[in-house]
Amino acid sequence: MIQIPSHSLAVAVYVLDDQSNILLVKGFRRGWEFPGGYVNRGESIKAAAIREVKEESGIDIVIKKTLGVEHDMNRSVSVFVFEGKKIGGTLTTSSENEDVGFFSYDEAMKIIKLRNFKDRLYKCANEKNTPYIIEM
Fold first, then answer.
1. Distance CA 86, CA 32 (A)
2. How far is the C-alpha of 1 from the C-alpha of 64, rounded, in Å?
3. Looking at residue 104, which CATH number applies to its domain?
4. Is the residue at 136 inside a domain?
5. Any residues with CB less than 8 A from the CB of 66 and at least 6 apart, and which?
6. pLDDT tens, position by position, 76-135
7. Which string of b and e fits 47-57 if b means at least 16 CB within 10 Å?
8. Cα(49)–Cα(82) distance, rounded to whole angstroms?
9. For residue 80, how many other CB atoms are within 10 A of its CB?
10. Is residue 1 in a domain?
11. 135 assigned to some structural domain
12. Domain that holds residue 61
């Protein structure tokens, strides 16, 4: 019998404002990270990225480019990492997070606690590291 694999597709967005500050959201479990989430059935990955940023932060963006792909083989989840540019909106929290804000690179590195999110920020902020593919 052929087993049909079950995979999840997610997005994370490195959003910059006009001063090159980075948008982060503070979740209840994982702390500070890029806004993002799962792609809905029938939804494009770019549309999901735009939607997730708006839902989690109140910020409107345009997608500039793809920065990387991260594939967690154990969890069977692939995350597309995009660069987005703020074009409007007002910072606001959602039911999914407890805080939101724009931070300098150094500030962001200090408040992000999870190693994989620090690594993601480092790769995204250094153009020579993109695009990247990580399989873990």
1. 19
2. 43
3. 3.90.79.10
4. no
5. 80, 81, 82, 83, 131
6. 999 999 999 999 999 999 888 999 999 999 999 999 999 999 999 999 999 898 899 989
7. ebbbbbbbebb
8. 8
9. 20
10. no
11. no
12. 8-128
**How wide is the angle at C-alpha 130 spanned by C-alphas 128 and 132, nearest 5°?**
130
The structure tokens listed for 62 are: 């345009």
pLDDT in tens, 58-75: 999 999 999 999 999 988
Q: How many CB atoms lie within 10 A of CB 84?
A: 25
Listing DSSP states for 112-129 in one string gives --SHHHHHHHHHHHSGGG
Decide: pTM greater than 0.85: yes
CA dihedral sign of residues 12, 18, 20, 26: negative
Determine the pLDDT at residue 50.
98
Instruction: Kindly state whether residue 83 falls inside one of the protein's structural domains.
Output: yes
